[in-house]
Amino acid sequence: MHLHVHTAFSFRESLLRVEDVVLAAKRCGMRAVAVTDTNAMYGALQFYRLARQEGVAPVLGMQLSLALEEEPSARARASFETAVVLARGMGGYRRLTRLATTARWNRPVPHVTLRELAACSDDLVVLVGGPESRLFDLLVQGDEEAAERHLCQLANAVPAGQLYAELQDHGLLREREGLPGLIRLAKRFAIPLVATHDVRYLSRADAPWHRAYAGLNQVDAAERFAVDEFHFATQAEMADRFAHFPDAIARTADIAEMCALDLPLHQVRMPRYPTKDGRRADEVLREAARAGAVKRYGALSPDVEARLAHELDVICSMGYADYFLVVADFIRHAHQQGISTGPGRGSAAGSLVAYALRITDVDPIRHKLLFERFLNPARVSLPDIDTDFEYERRGEIIRYVMEKYGRDHVAQIGTFGTLQARAALRDAGRMLGADPALVDRLAKLVPGVVHASLDGAYAESQPFRALVDGSPEARRLFEAAKRIEDLPHHTSIHAAGVIISPEPIADWIPLDAAADDTPVTAYPMEDVEALGFVKMDFLGLKTLTLIDRCLASIRRRTGVTVDWRQVDEGDPATYALLSRADTNGVFQLESAGMRRVLRELRPTSLDDVIAVISLNRPGPMENIPAFCDAKHGRRPVTYPHPDLEPILADTYGVIVYQEQIMQIASRMAGFSLAEADLLRRAVSKKKREILDEERSRFVEGCVRRGYSEETAREVYDLIVRFADYGFNRSHAAAYAVLAFRTAYLRAHFLPDFLAALLTLSMGMPEKIRLYEQDARRNGIAVRPPSVQLSDRGYTVEEDGSLRAGLISVRNVGEAAVDHILSLRAERPFASLADFLRRIEPRIVNRKALDSLLAAGAFDEFFPDNASNKVRQQMFEEALARAEDSRQWAALDLFVEAEMQQTASRDREGEPSASRPKRLYIRYRSRGGGQVLREIQRVLAMSPGETEVALYDASTGRARLLGSRYRVRVTEDLIAALEERVGLGNVRLR
């Protein structure tokens, strides 16, 4: 049984995909196989699940770098040992995930110390002495005494009976030199030998490709993998290779059996909400939901009371009370901190409990949203409440959750970047040393579509195929790229996913550290969920940032505070804007397709906006003409049966939403809403046997309720037809609220709306041009940036015009903008020279200054009729004066510092205004100090009391001359000095 296997999750060390390992083991008749990636377990759970599925026992492990010192040198090979650790049962698995976490958090290179290994070595099998280990190095060097001491050190870190010596023979000279010593040493210490094989690829034919691929990261790859023997060797090959060590072969099976593992998958690990006084979460949720509902509705009607009770019973019976409380808690924190949240997303908007807790802001009663579309007691599934936060402050919510529930209980979900077609071609080019021009040409011929594949490019792109078929070098490049295409290449972070765990996450999932030390799961989302962790999506939505900035601008400019609770949902100006499709920047309604539907439909209510969002998709859009004709009276509104009018009235008899399908099944066939949801899901699969089975149930239910069989069949056919088309009304309703709000702001506060929109679009030139044209078309002037008047982003001026932000200027970074704004906050810039004199050139460099000049940011400092040539000349003169002034000021500061440090010249206590002036001389050294000697000769001719300070512009060095060179300052002295150093370079200050 192979116990030392690297997959592609040992980035750039292996060509093996996880499925390759499992299928190869199965093909070779191996009952078990291990995966031991380098300092990581990225593919461990994927491997575990696939191996169990294929009937192969998975052994989970890792090849660890062991630091031999507490603070090892990253570059010193002698600072690290290499060992393979394998998990024995659940206890071993937990220790393995802890070690993987420790390794990824230890920097600068992943490792664990011997002390850290010893602390986690219970229930682990440890294999040492492989050809890449420090122990083997010492044996190859012939230093068996040092090797013996080193092995003792390793043995002390591992419990008795759990340490084995790896016996590997790939045919390398190094192995022949070191193996005899390893065997002697293992025998001396009674450490059992186990035969292993460092598997890196499937067959010997892959060896050249692997050497080239590994060589992208490892300079010694050609030497390390010099032979073609790092393939997935068969049992027969291994038995033949180690014929003299049959026990070492047999031990692989013993160890595999010892490392049998049964992970408890799909057992929900619901986060726990810390209630006060030990109260049960169910009790707290019921109380909070009822209080929230009263705040929303006032006195509760019987219908609301009944629905609230029903939802709470379902939530609590399914064990989800903690989940709702956790989500409500971080939403509440966001509101307390002034962080905007979205009105809802997905089917969660159909929950009255979520609305009562202010998790969502869409009334499910008013909008006819169904709880069973979100949580169905007849179909056990985890709750999935996705939350939108103001884009720029999303990180604050994640930090809050970590602080509240503990950093070891919260993590963002990791993902893996893979080598897509173009990247694979470029890496293959480096592997083969191919002509860069050919690589670039071939890569550019790959179709620019998401997830384009090399085989797809060959099949679909005639120029790509012609180049591959017409050039042997291009063909070889293509074949090499196919070998590495889709291999995992690096780790990343899921755009939104976060898990909150009731126990330390590292007991179940190894954790990586993001750049800011945020914990990130080493397993991707599907593996995290397979272990029972509940994913929560914390999404950053720029539309919320747009709304926030627009509202702030309105308050600042007009004093008006827009309160969405007071805004008329039927506002005529907003629907007039939507009807003419004037929707630049309006959430979800900006595309050409949406504009076309808006012009046809001419919405007059929020229900119409919900329908627009739902209909403009492939499939449902074929119903748009009928929908619009019915709305505008061009065709009569008809219903499959009069009883369905209450369900289909607001969509003019057309089935648009999934919820309508559920309501029809409930109304006509007597299904509960939970059963109706199951029907909707089943019918959408379009499987013949399911369709027939559900038809019988539906028709029988309808007949029992007094409908004819013919009517029942007609309605069922209608359900089947629309099952794929139906959209989630809960999701559409929540997004329609944001669409309405952005449309309202555009209709009533266009300058503020466009300023916020332009600010969010900075860095996207096409969008900037579009929105600036939009402003001008609506009679709103767009003025250039100004160092005197601009903010970071676009702002609205008193006359209603827009002022471009400084950050919009090319080559002017955020640090430069912050510096300019901080200087202006101290006092406005009096002139261009004042601006140039006060800025720090290292922060606002010449390139940034030229860009500001070209953008018009200095225009107020120039005469109105000045030409570009005149402006450039005035700028250069001001820049020269500023630099001159800056040099003198720097020299003055230096001398003051010198005076404070030199006790003999210390005038502490003397008012600075009464201090005598000094003579400052600026010069450029040349001729081996000749200029300095000439200055000193002139100074010696006029002795006096005035101190002299020198600044060498060539070196940037300044110094204060001693008392020997103090002078009496006269016009003749200054003239004599300026004759040597140039006019303007001598000053009395």
What can you tell me about this protein's structure?
- 48% of the residues lie in helices and 11% in strands.
- The protein is an alpha/beta fold and 989 residues long.
- It is globular, with a radius of gyration of 37 Å.
- 42% of the residues are buried.
- About 1% of the residues have low confidence.
Strand content: 5-15%
Helical/strand content category: alpha/beta
Radius of gyration: 37 Å
User: What overall form do the CA principal axes indicate?
Assistant: globular
- Could you estimate the helical fraction of the residues in percent? 40-55%
- Helix tally equals 41
- Cα-to-Cα separation, first versus last residue: 86 Å
Instruction: Say how many strands there are.
Output: 20
Q: Biggest β-sheet, characterized? A: 7 strands, mixed
What do the pLDDT scores average to?
A: 89
